[in-house]
Design goal:
The protein is mainly beta. The protein is 2% helix and 44% strand. It has two helices and 48 strands. The strands form twelve sheets. Strands 10-11-12-13-14-15-16 form a seven-stranded antiparallel sheet, with no helix packed on it. Strands 2-3-4-5-25 form a five-stranded mixed sheet, with no helix packed on it. A four-stranded antiparallel sheet has the order 6-7-8-9, with no helix packed on it. The two termini are 41 Å apart.
Length: 603
């Protein structure tokens, strides 16, 4: 087995109406203070702010000034949370791959790991005695939970773990995203999670947005505090009766104030444009949060102020950092010459020689590249790149006829193939390299003829629906005439079938599966005229839920230069080298027993 030795060089109620302070001016940040600070948290005594910057935890005086590192590991560290005495910080670290909870002595600088589960663990608070860190994590649902098992980190529960180590204890089975423990009562303020939709969607107004809830530990019951179609999140206690939270009810996300005994609320800050994140509050009610990548403080009775943070220059930080990409490869494509493999890692395109294990960058941009594939002659690479505000299609190529590979080429050029106001994604060359197929806005399957610049739509967006990036697939036939693809005919959104259509757009898509189950991810197999795809038709069937299985594969075969059966009209037609589609049922076990691979086995 060949081992790929790869490197990546990194450079990265009954409350009064809104007061005048909510409408007051917000300080101009200026171009000199554009940063990307995250997870700002003010200490209980309001003297210091901990925050995440460049994958480490830093601390700075509340008035601003020089920031010092609290962590400096090669792993990503973030989500700092202060203990109530201000002597400890819990935080999340990816030291072991996923996020685990660590606790750090602020004065000693010593850290210890508290959780060891493969699920991501995010700290949110300490218990009142500071002997346990509180975090949320999607581990194992409680036996009585009514939520369907998701496994994507969407419906996390609340846990606590002793700072001296031990088994975490389940505190709350309701899905939470942020939670704070009341110091005197132990009641839990938390932000609920209703669906798998993104929590960071801006200005959304729907039944899926988060609300603020409270869990009463004495009565073992929960009560909803906010009922808004806007997003209301990240609650923090002021005292046993009042709390702050974030809401975008007025447009942009801002700080609001609420009371337990009232449905009224009062806007506290008046930012516009970018969204506020990471709300925290000290005992004297000093607020700290992030806005537009910067840290802000708000003293009681005063307008918000930008916290100017200074970082000491470090030669170590300015030098290139060597990071392995063996566990960061998101995509790959093997050259038709079988001597190189193109990889997508850390948002860049690399090529690795399979004989020597040596690698070379093909791209080196601040933007993201992905969806890489080789041309049939192995001398060009096609990919999508996020240049500007949209995704375009680009091609890198070997310059000079004498160069035999990307690794040995003296120069590698790049050219833009297609860009514009829409996103052009997941491009693939045709077998003769003349045409390129791609998804436009993950809706229309289009083909571009690179010689004539003619573009045609093979499948229109009314037959497609993309729920997540990359869930719509297609492939070229070996003769370059057909495209096979996922699509959703007859309005079956979310339940794809497999379709084929001529790449020139001369005929509408033919549904070759016509199934009520999910058929997806089709692939043309070499020159045999066989199409494979994934189906849950014969597996565990999701008739009344989400948990179906799709481990089986179906096969279609065709014979070239014959007639095609149009299933819509039940008639036979002719069109160039259109093929006759023969539907067969196939199982690997049956075909192995009769030693007749890729054909129907005898009855």
């Amino acid at each position: 087995m060949r081992v790929l030795h790869l490197i990546w060089l990194a450079s990265l109620f009954c409350l009064p109406p809104a007061s005048s302070e909510a409408k007051s001016g917000v300080p101009d940040q200026g171009d000199d203070h554009q940063n990307w600070y995250q997870h700002a948290a003010i200490s209980p005594d309001s003297r210091s702010i901990a925050f995440t910057y460049k994958g480490d935890i830093h601390i700075v005086p509340v008035e601003g000034g020089r920031a010092d590192n609290l962590t400096s590991s090669k792993a990503w560290d973030g989500h700092p949370v202060w203990s109530r005495d201000g002597r400890k910080l819990s935080y999340a670290s990816a030291s072991n791959g996923n996020l685990d909870v660590f606790v750090l002595g602020v004065d000693s600088g010593r850290a210890s790991q508290l959780t060891f589960h493969p699920a991501d663990d995010i700290p949110v608070d300490f218990l009142a005695d500071d002997f346990a860190a509180v975090f949320y994590s999607e581990r194992v649902d409680a036996a009585g939970s009514l939520h369907y098992p998701n496994g994507g980190g969407h419906f996390a529960e609340l846990y606590s773990v002793d700072i001296r180590g031990g088994t975490p204890r389940l505190m709350l089975t309701q899905p939470v995203a942020n939670a704070r423990i009341g110091g005197s009562t132990g009641d839990i303020l938390f932000e609920d999670k209703k669906s798998t939709e993104s929590r960071n969607r801006k200005r959304e107004k729907s039944s899926s947005t988060s609300d603020i809830w409270i869990y009463d530990q004495k009565s073992n019951s929960s009560r909803q505090l906010s009922k808004s179609s806007s997003s209301e999140r990240h609650p923090v206690w002021l005292d046993s009766n009042e709390y702050y939270f974030l809401s975008d009810e007025s447009g942009a996300m801002n700080v609001w104030q609420g009371q337990l005994g009232s449905t009224g609320k009062r806007q506290v800050t008046g930012h516009s444009g970018y969204t506020l994140r990471s709300l925290s509050v000290a005992r004297d009610r000093t607020l700290v949060y992030t806005h537009d990548g910067n840290v802000y403080r708000k003293f009681l009775g005063h307008d918000p102020e930008l916290v100017i943070i200074e970082h000491l220059s470090s030669t170590e930080a300015d030098e290139p950092v060597v990071l392995g990409v063996d566990s960061h490869i998101s995509e790959f494509s093997v050259s038709p010459l079988e001597n190189e493999v193109a990889l997508v890692a850390h948002g860049e395109i690399l090529v690795t020689n399979l004989d020597t294990g040596k690698s070379r960058f093909v791209t080196g941009t601040p933007e993201l590249e992905r969806s890489v594939s080789f041309s049939p002659n192995g001398r060009r690479l096609l990919y999508s790149a996020e240049r500007g505000e949209t995704w375009g299609i680009f091609e890198s190529y070997i310059e000079g006829v004498d160069a035999e590979s990307f690794l040995t080429a003296a120069d590698i050029g790049e050219r833009e193939i297609l860009s514009g106001e829409r996103d052009y994604l997941y491009p693939k060359y045709s077998p003769d390299s003349v045409a390129i197929a791609y998804w436009t806005d993950e809706e229309d399957l289009e083909v571009l003829n690179t010689r004539t610049n003619r573009r045609n739509v093979v499948v229109s967006g009314d037959l497609n629906y993309s729920y997540v990036e990359g869930d719509m697939r297609f492939d070229w036939s070996n003769d370059g005439y057909w495209l096979v693809f996922d699509f959703s005919p007859r309005g079956r959104i979310g339940l794809t079938n497999i379709g084929i259509a001529p790449a020139d757009g001369s005929h509408e898509a033919i549904d070759v599966t016509q199934s009520g189950y999910v058929n997806a991810e089709p692939k043309w197999h070499g020159s045999s005229g066989t199409i494979f795809w994934r189906s849950n038709r014969e597996g565990k069937r999701p008739h009344a839920g989400w948990e179906g299985s799709a481990s089986d594969f179906d096969v279609f075969m065709y014979k070239p230069e014959l007639e095609v059966l149009d299933p819509e009209s039940d008639s036979v037609r002719k069109a160039g080298n259109v093929t006759h589609i023969v539907r067969i049922q196939w199982s690997q076990a049956e075909c192995q027993s009769c030693n007749a691979a890729w054909v129907r086995c005898p009855e």
